Structures are given as C-alpha cells and as structure tokens.
Amino acid sequence: MGRFHFLKEKKFYINLLLILLLCGVILWLTFRVLDRYTRHDKVFTMPDFVGQDFRQVKYDYSKEFNFILIDSVYPKGQEPGSIYQQDPLPGSKIKRGRNVYAIIVAMTPEKTVMPNLKGISLREAIGRLESSGLDVDYLDYVSYSYKNNIIDQYYQGQPIAAGTELVKGSKIMLRVGIGDDKTNIKVPNLIGKPANEIKRMLNLAGLNLGKEESEDRDSLQYMCVRRMSPGPSSNAVQLGTFIDVWYHSNRTMDFNKEMDELLHEDSITNRPQPFVLDTVIDTITETTDYEYEDEF
User: pLDDT: is 35 or 155 the higher one?
Assistant: First the structure.
C-alpha cells in the first residue's frame, strides 16, 4: 500500500470535514465572546463635564465610566470642586467602562504670604502684590512728605504684617503719601481699553476704580471702556480720586471711531481763541481817545 492510501478512503474526508466545522465553531464563539467583552459594537460620545461638580458627575456616570482624579489646580473665578479638564475630550468616541481622567479646581483656596510694602514706591508695591497673587483694594492718599510712597498696608480694614498667610486673590488697601506739593494729576484716557486692565492702569496712575457698569451683555474679554467720569478731557484731579467707567462690547462697537470723535471734541474744547485784529484796534483807539480827552 502506498504512503497516501488514506486519501482514497471516505472516512478521512468525513473526519477532515468534522475538524473544519469544529474549528469554525470555535473561531465563531471566540469572536462572539471577544466582541461581547470589549463592547466593540457599542460606542458612546464623550459628554462635556468641564465646569460640573466632580463628585456629582462621578455619582451620575459611575456605571458608564471609571473616573480617576489626577490633579487639582487654582484658576481664578472657577467653582471649587468643579472639573477643570478631562481626558478623553468632550465629543470623543469611546466605549462604556473607559477610564476618564479629570483635573479639578482645588476645594481649598491657594494660600500666599503678605509681602512687606512699607517704604517702597506705589509702582513697586503693585508689582509685589501681583507676584504674590494679591490685588489692590484701593489707594488711600494721606499727607506725607514722599509722594506715592507706601506708608502702611491693610486687609479688611486692619493693618496686616508682612509674612501673614492669606488666600490668593485677597484685596489689600494701601495707604500712600500724597507729597508736599499736593499737585493734581491728569486722568489717563481709558476709552477703548480692555475691562480687565482698567483697575491696574488707574492704580499705577495713583487713582482708584469707582463704579463699573456695562451697557450691553458680553464676555468680559470683549468688554472695553466706552465712557468714564471724570473723563480724560476734564481738569486735573487729586491723587486717589475714584474714576467711574462704563463698558461696551468691542464686537458691537467701533472703538476706533469713538476715539476719533473724542479726539475731535477735545481739539475743539482746547482750541486756543483766535487772534482778532479788529478787537485789538478798537481797544487801542478807545485808549488813545481817552488819553486825548484828558489832555484838555
């Protein structure tokens, strides 16, 4: 009998067919189990959790996702405990049960230390406060020989010593010397300037930010000064004067045009009176006639 005599037997082909069928069934079952285990056929769109409370989101979506907190940050103006950043990003196509990594706004406010501002200039004091994460409340000018020199520092109406721990963003009132000359200063022109820069500009000029009002609704990043009182064309004011401002969105107003009109009005208001020759001649004539009559 030859080596390949089994190829002529019917039993061989039956067994081969059964083996192939069994392999096919095993492969089909394997893919079915993998598909079910990986949920390959179920894809979800990642929701946007930014700004929502982390604990509430974790409770509401605990069956869909596995939330992992990886860090906390201290951004200004954000609700403590809210989600600041997430991964995967909102709108991503993901499977149920996916890990979601979150960065939240810290529950406890960030702390800083009060610097020593006594005896330094106003400009340097503002810089040190900014470096420490603190803000100027307002400037209180009093009689003192050195102009724009810091006399004392206050927090919530009480003197505060250097090295005191404070929450970042706390407001510090500065008592500042007015100088011996007590000269007035000109109000800086704030028209068209961004709202988030106004307070610092006024403080550096020795002035305070007074009432703030918005003429329309828009995000702060688009708001600019449209009007101010006292205005830049008014007479010089005392140090520490409060300046009221009105904001308007730069997306609904052409501030370049507003500035041109303001400059035009200022040029008319401050234009020197023309030299009128006829008036001078009449004055000379009247004086001459008067002296001539006196001779008789």
Answer: 155
Q: Per the domain annotation, does 20 fall within a domain?
A: no
pLDDT score of 287 more than 50: no
Percent of the chain with pLDDT over 70: 81
Residue 54 CA neighbour count, 13 Å, CB half: 24
Residue ending a domain, among 105, 133, 148, is 105
Are 80 and 100 found together in one domain? yes
User: What is the mean predicted confidence (pLDDT) over 122-138?
Assistant: 96
Q: How many domains does the chain have?
A: 3
The residue behind tokens 């009182």 is 229
Model confidence at 275: pLDDT above 60: no
- Per the structure, the complete domain to which residue 79 belongs is given by 44-105
Residue 6 has a pLDDT of 62
- Looking at 89, 105, 121, the residue that finishes a domain is 105
Q: Assess if residue 85 is contained within a domain.
A: yes
